Amino acid sequence: MTLADLSEFLRDQPLLALAIVAIFVTVAGGMLRGTVPLLGRLLQDAGNLGLVATLLLTIAQVTRLTTSSDLALPQFGMPEQNVAGGETRVPMSRDGHFWLTASINGTPARFLVDTGATLTAISDQTALDARIPEKTLRQTVNMRTANGAIRAELATISELRLGNIVARDLDAVVAPGLGDTNVIGMNLLSRLKGWRVEDGVLILVPNNPQQSIQN
Fold it and tell me: CA-CA distance, 48 to 60, in Å (whole number)?
């Protein structure tokens, strides 16, 4: 990994970057305490403060994600995604999450983008509306949610479209424990050329941009 790659990675992981800087400042302060006690103590205090801030922010983020897995319903009047310059841009909604409109096998559905989810998950009703076929050999997996462990059935989405992105033969789970909520997981995001968050906007960059769907 080059320095540029590391810099780009840390830019997308602000809490990790803050923790690394805080540790560096704390160590530097400890090294200086023998020769410049006042400066060394100030640096150590600043570094420790940074580590505490990182811990509190991490707890807040985890709490938001776990409580949202109940899962938060999309807010009325939330900003819609749009396509600009070959990118699909999804503004953060008022509840602090990224919601988008997608099309499953031609059927529109609302999705919550969850980078902590390994697989894309859809509700029973969405699977029924989109006519997701059952596998010949029914396969189930255990999923852990804020409400406890649930059983979910593996499925395959023939085509999922969002903005200028098309994903075909996408693995998913049909999870009754999600209620009416659908979730975009990392198995879809990992197919993209790249994705990032800038100024409260989730930016999705496809490898081969397609014609945008109408929301």
Answer: 18
Q: What is the CA radius of gyration of the chain?
A: 21
* Position 177 pLDDT exceeds 80: no
Q: At residue 18, what are phi and psi to the nearest 5 degrees?
A: -60, -40
Token duo for residue 182: 């659908």
Can you give the pLDDT at residue 85?
A: 62
What distance in Å separates the CA atoms of residue 91 and residue 114, rounded to the nearest whole number?
A: 14
Long-range contacts of 22-25 (CB under 8 A, 24+ apart): 22/46, 22/47, 22/48, 22/49, 22/50, 22/51, 22/53, 22/54, 23/47, 23/51, 25/50
What are the percentages of helix, strand and coil residues in the chain, rounded to 5? 35, 30, 35
Q: Of the candidates 136, 107, 110, 133, which has an alpha carbon nearest to the alpha carbon of residue 121?
A: 110
Please, where are the H alpha helices in the chain?
3-11, 14-32, 37-68, 124-129, 186-189
23-82: pLDDT as tens digits: 888 888 888 888 888 888 888 888 888 877 777 766 655 444 334 443 433 444 445 666
pTM above 0.70, yes or no: no
E runs forming strands in 114-164: 120-122, 140-145, 148-162
| Amino acid 14: pLDDT | 73
Check residue 104 and give its pLDDT: 94
CA distance 72 to 117: 15
